[in-house]
Amino acid sequence: MDRLEGPPRLILVADLDCTLVDHDDPENNDLLRFNALWEAHYRHDSLLVYCTGRSFSSYMSLRKKRPLLTPDIAVTSVGSEIVYGGGESTVSDVVWTARLDYKWNRDIVVEETLKFPKLEPQPDKSQEEHKVSFFVGREDAVEIMKVLPGILEERGVDVKLVYSNGYAFDVLPRGAGKQGALTYLLDKLDIEGKQPSNTLVCGDSGNDAELFNISDVYGVMVSNSHEELLQWYEENAKDNPKIFHASERCGAGMIEAIQRFNLGPNVSPRDVMETENFHGESLNPAHEVVQFYLFYERWRCGEVEKSDKYLQNLKSLSSPLGIFVHPSGVEKPIHEWIDEMENLYGDGKEKKFRIWLDNVTSSHISSDTWLAKFVKHELSEGKVRSCSTKVLLSYKEEKQRLTWMHIHQSWLDESSSDDQEKWIF
Fold first, then answer.
1. Of the residues 280, 315, 341, 407, which has the maximum number of CB atoms within 10 A of its CB?
2. CATH number of the domain at 103-173, out of 1.10.390.10, 3.90.1070.10, 3.30.43.10, 3.30.930.10?
3. What integer pLDDT is reported at residue 260 of this predicted model?
4. Domain Sucrose phosphatase-like, which positions (predicted)?
5. Measured between alpha carbons, how far is residue 86 from residues 1, 47, 59, 286, 354 in Å?
């Protein structure tokens, strides 16, 4: 949370499975739409928080399968773990972990739950120090939830029981859960004088319901929400104007909520098919680089007309003296790389070619110059290659827009291109 010097404009808190990540959308269309919107308009002054029932290791496994952005904070294991960073470089919140030790004894929880034969333990990868997880049907879960807390209380253990998705049953310390974790984070920001302007929570299942109980937050239940969350809404929140049931699935429902509550820009750059003047926001370097790479993706997929005017337009956006340093180390003028794009038109159409940018930041290094930094991910034929990218941009008064002066890329995560000539920009 130290990334921002002042209060965040928006904290967006998203469950992962079936909320941000649509497992019925193998192309990840709405997730990619959200990614482009967040990096172009929110990353610079807002916080992205993932709040999931998955363990941290399971969440990291999902990152390898889906184009997830790096969050500022990852709340995992149904609120029993808080990690800052949420990517390859992370720091756990040890204060939060210590809080959860109060009146908690995992061994006693395991011992007592063994006496309920209907509780089927989940795999070891789903078990955590402060989370004991089972599979159980709804009717049995209701009966167990009536008696288990009292049994554990008699042995000095104070627990919270969370049931979701019609099968997942979690036993947590009393202070844990998604609501407890988010309340803790909001309190930390308040103490630091960084209370957010707005907070939006997004979910689809029973373990998300308590997020909507936090005062002064906006909430969206995506259209594909589970019955237990919809029932909770009917019984507790249908008259609350700050909580609504979206008409769109998953990531699209989250974008719908941003629009409904007027929380900021709500049109994803992926929904804008402007191909000649995609530099519309003249002094927003993040928007500039996101739009540039979206055009490049569309060119490679043959989704725009094959016309020299587009390549000439790209040249007009870059300095004739500008240099692109390829991640292989090869250096050539940016204009020469643009010329090579002509031979790649449409080559990604059958390869499910996609590009997304992550962690886009920009710094104003002089009166008319910005340095944009980000990670570029490129998917082709099921393989993801990633590189660290730096772009030097200069504002030209006569053009009334940013001009690309220099691009430098370096491979990440043992990435490399089998065909160096097809990795451009």
1. 407
2. 3.90.1070.10
3. 97
4. 9-262
5. 12, 12, 9, 21, 23
Phi then psi for 250, rounded to 5 degrees?
A: 45, -125
Which structure tokens are listed for 277? 């003047």
Q: How far apart are the first and last CA of the chain?
A: 31
Measure the CA–CA gap between 319 and 327, rounded to whole angstroms.
Answer: 20
CA atoms within 13 A on the CB side of 75: 29
**Model pLDDT for residues 332-383, shown as the tens digit of each residue:** 999 999 999 999 999 998 889 999 999 999 999 998 899 999 999 999 988 9
| Closest by CA position to 324, among listed 311, 338, 313, 310 | 338
DSSP string covering 144-207? HHHHHHHHHHHTT--EEEEEETTTEEEEEETT-SHHHHHHHHHHHHHHTT---SEEEEEE-SGG
- Contact between 112 and 152 under an 8 Å Cβ cutoff? The reply is yes
Task: Give the DSSP H/E element, type plus range, for residue 399.
Answer: none
Q: Which helix (H) or strand (E) holds 236?
A: helix 227-236
Q: Please, which residues bridge with residue 243 across strands?
A: 219
Question: Which tokens in the block code for residue 205?
Answer: 């299942």
How many C-beta atoms lie closer than 10 Å to residue 191's C-beta? 9
The three-class DSSP label of residue 107 is helix
**Could you tell me the two tokens for 45?**
């002054």
> Could you say which DSSP state residue 50 is in?
E
